[in-house]
Design brief:
511 residues, alpha/beta, Rossmann fold, N-(1-d-carboxylethyl)-l-norvaline Dehydrogenase, domain 2, 2 domains, 11 strands, globular, NAD(P)-bd_dom_sf, NAD, oxidoreductase activity, Mannitol_DH/Oxidoreductase
Length: 511
């Protein structure tokens, strides 16, 4: 969130189209005429990750002359990003940081910013604009509103609202389905929906969720106008899958002050990131797309092997570092990863997860994990463990639980994978005790707190948490997962991370 001091800055000393012309020559600025850019992409969820990732790739395309792909950004909840960027004509600074260097680039691909709760009609107008051919999403896992079994949570209050208030939706589901219905009625081809969140088979998952939403809507509408929309969504709308990867820590006031000094003007919301950036996209865009492959995007027929490797090796180890780091008193990833015991655990976690990856996809896991180790050691990013810890119930199923269950099925022991689940539970329990009350959050915080207050025996409590989060719903190895996790949680409660790791043969320097 922008600081109050920066938000009060006058227009004359803020980054803008005018002031960007006078920035130091060392700072890259848009080389294209932004007034000639046509909005071809609507992005839902304009957070720091999008601005460090997809928006940067699109900026490269615009600079190459593909001016039909400007971005209209949509915030589904907060006005903070709009309030920060609109006085800056949509410009912001991308700071690419490694342990010894920092490169600054001003990104200009976001042409307009909308805030859905303020004006849902304006968002729908952008979505039904025939020039809009792609809609991208980074709304976080929890915003897909899935029930424990993975299907659409039809009882969620926002879903119920959107089904009853088609012209004033709150959710991504409501906006996308209403826009696709209007485009269908007008004879406008449907846009392609490109999910960029960390969901398994994210394109297919979103396709299923939106089809389920459309089925509910069809049932409500009956024969009124656009009944049968679900079949249109299922048959005529493209939902390519994608895999995204770039570490983007939260921006601090110290970052803003440093960037302002470099620019000579203030930027209300610069974005910090690392040099590494990866985007793998299923090449299925009936209405066209930017030539992303010219700028490092990997266009493929099947994203799944890349997605599995990223989710299970990068995201899985990130969650492990976050929860073990929090329980060990490490505030950032680089500090946690520098802890020899945690580093040894991560190596063992990778060794446990790698056999669950596709064998025939040509994945170079040795090079990938070596690169991850270098990225996690980047001292310039200060990526907070508490930031990564958010929404564990939504993230762990694809990052950790799926691998653990596959290990059990094949007869191997997921002792490191299941420690991550136990560490998440322990970190949730620690809030308000050894960790600050709201250090990180989870969609299940209220029922989790109620479970913790019941003083259940460890295995009964773990079973209740696993069932609440839907970690192994209907799986034959549910009980085995619970038993492994419970054993780790006993160690964490008795002797903290040091005892839990020692039980795995990993000794800390203090032990």
């Amino acid at each position: 969130m922008p600081s109050d001091q920066t938000s009060r800055a006058t227009t004359s000393n803020r980054l803008s189209s005018k002031t960007a012309r006078a920035l130091p020559a060392s700072i890259a600025t848009p080389s294209y005429d932004r007034s000639s850019v046509v909005p071809g992409i609507v992005h839902l969820g304009v957070g720091a990750f999008h601005r460090a990732h997809q928006a940067a790739y699109v900026d490269d395309c615009l600079a190459a002359g593909e001016t039909g792909w400007g971005i209209t950004g949509v915030s589904l909840r907060s006005a903070d990003t709009r309030d920060a960027l609109t006085p800056q004509d949509g410009l912001y600074t991308l700071a690419i940081r490694s342990s010894g260097t920092e490169k600054l680039q001003v990104i200009g691909s976001i042409g307009a910013m909308l805030v859905a709760p303020e004006d849902p009609g304006a968002v729908l107008a952008a979505l039904i604009d025939p020039r809009t051919r792609i809609v991208t999403l980074t709304i976080t896992e929890k915003a897909y509103l899935r029930a424990a079994g993975g299907r659409l949570d039809a009882a969620h209050l926002d879903i119920v609202h959107d089904l009853a208030n088609r012209e004033m939706p709150k959710t991504a589901h409501g906006f996308l389905i209403e826009a696709l219905a209007r485009r269908r009625a007008a004879g406008t081809p449907p846009f392609t929906v490109l999910c960029c969140d960390n969901l398994p088979a994210n394109g297919a998952t979103l396709h299923r969720l939106l089809t389920e939403f459309a089925e509910l809507r069809d049932t409500r509408l009956g024969t009124e106008g656009d009944a049968g929309l679900a079949k249109h969504i299922a048959d005529a709308v493209a939902f390519p899958s994608s895999m995204v990867d770039r570490i983007v820590p939260a921006t601090t006031d110290a970052d803003r002050a440093r960037i302002a000094e470099e620019l000579g003007v203030e930027d209300a919301w610069p974005v910090m990131t690392e040099p590494f950036c990866q985007w793998v996209v299923e090449d299925n865009f009936p209405e066209g797309r930017p030539a992303w492959e010219q700028f490092g995007v990997t266009m493929v027929d099947d994203v799944r092997p890349f997605e599995d490797m990223k989710l299970r090796l990068l995201n899985g180890s990130h969650s492990a570092i976050a929860y073990l780091g929090l329980l060990s008193g490490h505030a950032t990833v680089d500090r946690a990863f520098a802890d020899p015991a945690i580093r040894a655990f991560v190596d063992a976690l990778w060794a446990e997860a790698i056999p669950t990856l596709p064998k025939d996809a040509g994945l170079d896991t040795a090079s990938y994990t070596a690169e991850l180790a270098e990225r996690f050691s980047n001292t310039a990013l200060a990526h907070r463990t508490a930031q990564i810890a958010n929404d564990g119930s939504q993230k762990l199923p694809q990052r950790i639980v799926a691998s653990a269950l596959e290990c059990i099925e094949t007869g191997s022991v997921p002792e490191h994978l299941t420690l991550v689940i136990a560490a998440w539970i322990a970190a949730c329990e620690a809030r308000g005790k050894t960790l600050p009350e709201s250090h990180f959050t989870d969609p299940f915080d209220v029922p989790l707190a109620a479970l913790f207050e019941r003083s259940l025996l460890t295995e009964a409590m773990v079973a209740a948490v696993v069932d609440l989060a839907g970690f192994a719903k209907g799986h034959t190895e549910r009980q085995t997962l619970i038993e492994f996790t419970s054993a780790h949680l006993v160690h964490l409660r008795q002797g903290g991370v040091a005892l839990a790791l020692a039980a795995l043969g990993i000794r800390s320097e203090q032990s």
